Fold this protein.
Amino acid sequence: MFKYLRVSVTDRCNYRCVYCMPEDGVRKQSHDDIMRYEEILVVIKAAVESGIEQVRITGGEPLVRNGIVEFIADVAKLPGLKDLTLTTNGALLPKYAMALKKAGLNRVNISLDSLNPKTFAEITRVGDLSAVIAGINAAIEAGLNPIKLNTVLIPRVNDSEIMDFVDFAVDKQIAVRFIERMPFNADERLAADPYVSQAQVMAVIAQKYQLEKSTDESLGPSNDYLVTGSRAGVGFISSRSQPFCQRCARIRLTSSGYLLPCLDSKVGVEVRGLTPDKVKETIKQLFNEKSSWQKQYACYASTFESSLSKIGG
Ligand code: SAM
Ligand code: SF4
């Protein structure tokens, strides 16, 4: 059965990352289109009762939605849930990290695509690097461990910073994960551009650090390593150079209430307003369908949604 559910609580965001959204943002869903927290809880509860062990709250930027801390507290109370996590761009963590920890959030992944203020502003279009660094420090202080940074490398934009990211992770004793950029239709200039592969990144890191394969069992698709002689980690989400479809146990809930068995799904199944039993039935059906796939690589050419901010990255 699916083990991992990603829940997008909003399609809105305070950033406009070039690989994720067009400059003027994605067409926003109206308030009525976005599921209310009570409706999302019904789906998460049914999912946990169906075997989901890990729930990740994401978006858009989950921390821009009002009431997010109270919602996290409600999810954390669900019996049977083993791990509750959040993916954020980090800008609002100085305000929320401690409250999220108290609400029962276990840990955070924080997106960080550059350690250079100018490049950071270029990639996020509107972001301020110092706010995210403050957010990372706030998460460390709050004990939202293990903290993982998510880094999407773009050729000739931030791929010269690979070693800086690993140095940063070693210094903070946290993990950095390099994500191979997926060709969503966010920015036409990027659509044709190649990604930076795990092998390329590892070759750079090897000039200074030795990596040993982590023995931790993870539910995710990440290839995880430890930096020898340190408590820092380096991970790779290599959906393009090393497709992991065959061991993917993930399902996603969009902010408008559709369940997607894959990022590459062409169709979603609406579960908003269904009874818990119907939601469970849908999850089972989607699992059976997904189990029969022979897919090896998702091309994202015409997915259900054109941006990860809408699907819940
Ligand atoms: N706003 C939050 C954030 O940035 O962490 C959560 C949502 S964001 C869609 C989740 C993750 O998806 C981020 O780490 C982001 O870098 C990643 N992402 C977005 N578009 C992507 C793409 N085209 N290829 C690879 N990763 C992508
Ligand atoms: Fe917003 Fe996250 Fe997409 Fe960047 S990656 S635009 S922070 S949703």
